[in-house]
Amino acid sequence: MSANYERPKPIDTIHYRKDCIFRIRCGCGHFVVEPLGQFATARGIPASTRIYRIIDRLKCSKCGGCPTAEVTRY
Question: Which run of H or E residues covers position 33?
Answer without folding.
Answer: strand 31-35
